[in-house]
Write a structure and sequence with these properties.
Keywords: Cell membrane, Disulfide bond, G-protein coupled receptor, Glycoprotein, Membrane, Receptor, Signal, Transducer, Transmembrane, Transmembrane helix. GO terms for molecular function: calcitonin receptor activity. Belongs to the G-protein coupled receptor 2 family. Helix content is 65%, strand content 5%. With 406 residues, the protein is mostly helical. The protein folds into two domains: 72 residues, GPCR, family 2, extracellular hormone receptor domain (Hormone receptor fold, Irregular), CATH 4.10.1240.10; 266 residues, Up-down Bundle (Rhopdopsin 7-helix transmembrane proteins), CATH 1.20.1070.10. The strands form three sheets. It has a two-stranded antiparallel sheet. Strands 2-3 form a two-stranded antiparallel ribbon. A two-stranded antiparallel sheet has the order 5-6. A hairpin with a 4-residue loop joins β2 and β3. The radius of gyration is 33 Å and the shape is elongated. The relative contact order is 0.10.
C-alpha cells in the first residue's frame, strides 16, 4: 500500500482488483479465468496510472478503463470469426428470401387469408431477426474494443436480438396453434384467433425477454463482454423456446390423428390443404429444434469445436431461408398463383404483339356474289356473339380466384 507520494487508489473494475499504483506506472495482473473460457490463461491484463495520479480513462467515453486486450486468445477468436462469417452469410440469404416471400404474399389478393396472415407475421419476425443479428455480429463480436468496453448499447442490442429470436419460435408455435384450432376445434372466429396469435407471437416473448434481461442485469457477474459469453440464464429463453417447440409438436401430432381418423374418407380440397399445411409444419419443427439437440454437447476439443460452431451457425442462420422455401417457394397455392399470373402476362404480351404488327393493304377485288356471301357470314357471327353474351360461360380465372388456404 502506498501512503506517500502521488499514486492511484486501489480499485475494483468489475473483473479484477488493482492495488495502489504509483503515478506514471503500469500495473499488470493475470487475466481472470472466471470471466471467459476464451481468454488465454497465460496472458496478462494491464492498467495505467497516469502522471497526475488517476487511472487512465477512455477518451471517447471518459470512463476508467482496464486493458484486457491481451487476454483474448487469438486462435479461439479466429474460430469465432469463422462462425460469425457463416452467421452473416446465412442471415443475409434468409433475409433476402423472406423479403421476396413477403412481396409475393402482399402482391396477390388471392393469397389474402388468415393462414397467410400468420405466415406474414412469421416472416416479418424473421426479417427483423436477420437484420438485428447482422448488425449485432458486425458491431460486437468482430470488434474487441466493444467487447472489452462492454457499453450499455451492446447489452441492449443483445437483448433486442434475443427478443426477436424468441418471436420467431413463438410465431412458429402460432402456426401449429392456428392449424390445431381450425382443424380440431373447428368452431372459432378468425379475428379472435389472429388477435390471440399476435399476443403470443409479439407480446409473450417481450415478457420472457424482460425477465431474462432483468435477472442478468441485476447480477453483475453476468454482465461482462456485452453478454456475449454463455450464461446459465440463457435457459430462461432457450427453455421456453424448447417448450413451445414440444407443445407445437404435440399439437401437430393431434392434428395428424384427427386427419387420419375422421377425414380419411373425405377427399375435399380443404382436407388436402390441411394435410399439406400439417406436412409443411411437421418438417419445420424438427429443423427449428435441431440446435437444441446440438446445444448441450459442445465439444471441448479446439479442432472439433470449430466445426461445431460453423455447423451450429449454419443451422441457426439459414432457418429463415428454409421457412421461406417451404411456406412460399414450394407452396402449391403460391406456385398456382404465380403460374396463372405468368400465363396472363404471356397472353397479354401476345395480344399486344399481334395488334401492333402492321397490316398490308389488300389489292384483291371481290365480285358482287362474294361480297354478298361475306355480309351473310358477318351477320351469322354477330348473332352467335349476341347469344354468347347473353349466356356467358365461366372463365378459368373466375373458377379459381379464391384463396384455397386454411
Amino acid at each position: 500500500m502506498h501512503t506517500t507520494g502521488l499514486y492511484c487508489y486501489r480499485t475494483w473494475d468489475g473483473w479484477a482488483c488493482w492495488d495502489d499504483t504509483p503515478a506514471g506506472t503500469t500495473v499488470y495482473s493475470p487475466c481472470p479465468q472466471y470471466v471467459s473460457k476464451e481468454w488465454d490463461p497465460l496472458a496478462q491484463a494491464y492498467k495505467e496510472c497516469t502522471s497526475n495520479g488517476t487511472w487512465w480513462r477512455r477518451p471517447d467515453t471518459g470512463a476508467v478503463f482496464t486493458k484486457y486486450f491481451n487476454c483474448m486468445d487469438e486462435e479461439k477468436m479466429t474460430e469465432n470469426k469463422s462462425a460469425v462469417y457463416v452467421y452473416l452469410a446465412g442471415y443475409g440469404v434468409s433475409t433476402m428470401a423472406i423479403l421476396i416471400s413477403l412481396v409475393i404474399f402482399f402482391a396477390f389478393k388471392q393469397l389474402h387469408c388468415d393462414r397467410i396472415t400468420i405466415h406474414k407475421n412469421l416472416f416479418v419476425s424473421y426479417v427483423l431477426t436477420g437484420v438485428g443479428w447482422i448488425i449485432y455480429y458486425l458491431k460486437v463480436p468482430l470488434d474487441h474494443d466493444v467487447i472489452v468496453a462492454n457499453p450499455f448499447w451492446c447489452q441492449g442490442l443483445h437483448v433486442l436480438v434475443q427478443y426477436l429470436t424468441v418471436c420467431n419460435y413463438f410465431w412458429m408455435f402460432c402456426e401449429g396453434l392456428y392449424l390445431h384450432t381450425i382443424i380440431v376445434v373447428a368452431f372459432t372466429t378468425g379475428k379472435a384467433l389472429l388477435i390471440c396469435c399476435c399476443v403470443i407471437g409479439w407480446g409473450l416473448p417481450a415478457v420472457i425477454t424482460f425477465i431474462y434481461a432483468s435477472i442478468r442485469g441485476i447480477l453483475r457477474d453476468a454482465t461482462h463482454e456485452c453478454w456475449i459469453i454463455n450464461s446459465p440464464y440463457f435457459w430462461i429463453l432457450n427453455g421456453t423456446v424448447a417448450f413451445s417447440l414440444l407443445l407445437n409438436l404435440a399439437f401437430l401430432c393431434n392434428i395428424v390423428r384427427v386427419l387420419m381418423t375422421k377425414l380419411r374418407a373425405v377427399n375435399s380440397p380443404d382436407t388436402n390443404q390441411g394435410r399439406k399445411a400439417v406436412r409443411a409444419t411437421l418438417i419445420l419443427i424438427p429443423l427449428l429444434g435441431l440446435q437444441f439437440v446440438l446445444f448441450p454437447f459442445t465439444p471441448s476439443d479446439s479442432h472439433t469445436k470449430t466445426y461445431y460452431l460453423i455447423a451450429s451457425a449454419f443451422v441457426t442462420s439459414f432457418q429463415g431461408f428454409f421457412v421461406a422455401l417451404i411456406y412460399c417457394f414450394l407452396n402449391s397455392e403460391v406456385l398456382t398463383v404465380l403460374r396463372r399470373k405468368w400465363e396472363q402476362y404471356k397472353l397479354m404480351r401476345g395480344s399486344q404483339d399481334s395488334s401492333s404488327s402492321p397490316r398490308r393493304p389488300s389489292s384483291t377485288y371481290y365480285t358482287s356474289a362474294e361480297v354478298t356471301a361475306h355480309a351473310s357470314s358477318s351477320k351469322l357471327k354477330h348473332k352467335r356473339s349476341t347469344v354468347a353474351t347473353l349466356h356467358p360461360s365461366p372463365s378459368h380465372s373466375e373458377q379459381h380466384s379464391t384463396c384455397e388456404c386454411l
